[in-house]
Amino acid sequence: MSIELRHVSKRFGSTAAVNDVSFTVQDGELVALLGPSGGGKTTVLRMIAGLERPTDGDLLVRGERVNDVPVQQRNIGFVFQSYALFKNMTVFKNIAFGLKVKQWKRRDIKARVTELLALFGLEGLENRYPHQLSGGQRQRVAIARALAPKPSVLLLDEPFGAVDAKIRQELREWLVRLHHDLNVTTLFVTHDQEEAMEVSNRIVIFSRGNLEQIGTPREVYESPVNEFVARFIGVMNVLECEVWGGTATLGELEFPAPGIPDGQRMRIGFRPYAVQISPDLAQYRHLATLRHTFFLVGVLRLELESESGLVIRARMTKEEYAQLGLADDCRVSFQIRNYRVLATESAALGPEQHVPYPEVPSIGENI
Amino acid sequence: MSGAAKSRLLAQRTRGHGPEEGGLARRFLIGAAVLFLTVFLVLPLVNVFWQALAKGGRAYLAALAEPDTIAAAKLTLLVAAIAVPLNTVFGVAAAWAIAKFQFRGKAFLITLIDLPFAISPVVAGLIYLVLFGMQGYLGPWLDAHGIRIVFNVSGIVLATVFVTFPFVARELIPVMQATGTDQEQAALTLGASGWRTFWQVTLPSVKWGLLYGVILCNARAMGEFGAVSVLSGHIAGETDTLPLRVDKLYHEFNATSAFAVASLLAVIALLTLFVKTYLEWQQQRAFARAEQAGSAPADNELPTRDDWL
Q1: Closest residue to B191, CB basis, from A98, A129, A132
Q2: How many folded domains does chain A comprise?
Q3: What is the ipTM, given to two decimal places?
Q4: Is residue A240 part of a domain?
Q5: Number of C-beta neighbours around residue A73 at 10 A
Q6: CA A203/CA A22 separation, integer angstroms
Q7: A87–B302: do the CB atoms touch at under 8 Å?
Q8: Following CA atoms B16, B19, B24, B29 in sequence, which dihedral angle do they give, to the nearest 10 degrees?
Q9: A5, A22, A189, B31: least buried by Cβ within 10 Å?
Q10: Which pLDDT band holds residue B292 (cuts at 50, 70, 90)?
Q11: Of the candidates A232, A253, A285, which is a domain's last residue?
Q12: Residue B174: inside a domain, yes or no?
């Protein structure tokens, strides 16, 4: 089911929770609404559900305006952050609730609930009460309950917020598979960029009620439209430089700034992967000490301290790290391959600049 | 959950963690409390039954079987049967509005609900007397239309409703606030009407608090004296409730009968306490079960792809 928001705003009293937001979700998409808390993403989800009314703008489902359609008639499945399971009902009755409301036949209800129990790995738990379930089980009951009446769209508010890290990872993969197999249009809210990147087809990024960018995970990572997105999605080094004689300088780092008057400040941003490192001190232009190595899953994050005391974050694979023979506190040389000139937080980003360093032979060629 | 039940639960939790060395102070405090309760509560209560039965079981039963006493008992039941359901409906509605919605004047509404607790019952009775009495503002007009409130059953009901007005609402507001609105909203997204949501989701989740409030409301409705006394007119067999009857018998120097009727009220009070304790115990069991949710069974393996196709 396609969903469209046209210039939708929501104000609570004098505070604007959502400010002139427009985007479209296509049939069968899996979309993440991502942003820091207070960004307005949950309000957007609740407006789509009909739990909040937009102050301004139109909400369209399959091209029809649904602003005034009450929540009961929107045919959506909503999974609350707290799961909101009916405490006084068993798992079976929880899942059957929406079907009873829609006056399904008793036999059909039993068949549908049994089907969902199997689908969600909840067999044998149908007579338990919510307090007798684990966090992951509760969440699956909540999703099963929302899906039972065959909604045309599934909305999830921070679906993985309340479960521990290991289960969260499994649930993410599981949600992707579920979406793939059921093919129901799904929107979920998260403040975890990694989760959004991993799970969704497209990401809608919010900040302070504004829609900052919408795109595939790859698009928002590689072509962020502004500094907020660039810093929110992944890690970015940001340097505050001062321009003198057409060059922006901070410590020993220099970036060309042709035509910019002396004394002006210029902000430079670059991703950790844009930093090249070598144990050969003569190889790159700048010298630094490797202060810390953080072992993330699959990759390593390095923290360099340059001669002038700048802290720069870089990343590489374990293999590269081993090949270069790096260790904490060893001296290295480095250079920055690509960077962007940053303006104010929300202004558009400049294009990525490639540093015209002379091509240096890679390690392989040296040997 | 009621605040009292919650704090009791807390007290149980922390028991045994207190410093042991305060043995003397502890014994003194417990002793003082027990002595106080014995002198001021247990002895008078025992005395009520003692006096009631002083002239033997037969005299006791005869005192209870007096037509005026039976009429008073019937009236008390009637008044409670009207006031309690009214205030239950009102209490649920008020608690619902206060806990689930944001609106202007909410603090004022909460204060208004507390008014009957703050005001002396006699004053409450007088307010109605001034409003509805023959010398009052509305009395002559009502009388002209054949409606009598003062010195009538309707006045007693009115006074009782006023006095017992806060019990249910006061008990439910914290329960409803703690429960939040997520479950109701979930029911709405599943297509349930507001009415269905109320009966199947809201009411079951506050049932202990509601029962607790109703029990307290009922006890007060049956035991109210001050406000009722002002409005009743003390017409024997017509507008006397049990508390008024006790008062009247006592002033007629009919101690045995007075204490016999008083013992009825005492039994109601004891029954109320018993039911209240039982409800608290039930609540605590519900809490304990909810607590166990923290140590709920570990997640089983998630279904594999093959399982769910």
Answers
A1: A98
A2: 2
A3: 0.77
A4: no
A5: 10
A6: 14
A7: no
A8: -60
A9: B31
A10: low
A11: A232
A12: yes
Q: What is the mean pLDDT of residues B1-24?
A: 52
Cα distance between residue B168 and residue B170, in whole Å:
6
* Chain A residues with CB-CB distance to B296 below 8 A: 131-135, 137
Residues of A in contact with B204 (CB under 8 A): 88
Distance (Å, whole) CA A181 – CA A28: 11
Q: Which residues of A touch B299 (CB under 8 A)?
A: 134-137, 167
For residue A164, how far is the Cα from the chain centroid?
A: 18
Range of the domain at A157: 3-232
Mean pLDDT over A27-54 rounds to 90
Question: B189 at the A interface (CB within 8 A)?
Answer: yes
pLDDT tens digit string along A93-107?
Answer: 999 999 999 999 999
Query: What pLDDT was estimated at residue A365?
Result: 32
Residue B184: closest CA among chain A residues belongs to which residue? A84
Domain span at residue B84 reads 57-291
Opening angle at CA B90, ends B89 and B93, nearest 5: 85
Chain A contact for B293, CB < 8 A?
yes
Hey, is the C-beta of B20 within 8 angstroms of any chain A C-beta? no
Top pLDDT among B88 and A266 is at B88
- Say which of A84, A131, A167 has its CB closest to residue B290: A131
Whether A102 and A219 share a structural domain: yes
Domain count, chain B: 1
pLDDT given for residue A34 in this prediction = 92
- Looking at the DSSP bridge assignments, the partners of residue A61 are A3, A64
The dihedral formed by the CA atoms of B276, B279, B281 and B287, expressed in degrees to the nearest 10: -130
pLDDT score of B305 more than 80: no
A159 touches chain B (CB under 8 A): no
Whether B3 has a pLDDT exceeding 70, the answer reads no
Question: Is B301 in Cβ contact with A137 (below 8 Å)?
Answer: no
Q: Convert the pLDDT of each residue in B132-180 to its tens digit.
A: 877 777 777 887 787 777 788 888 898 999 999 899 999 999 988 888 8
Q: So what's the pLDDT on residue A162?
A: 67
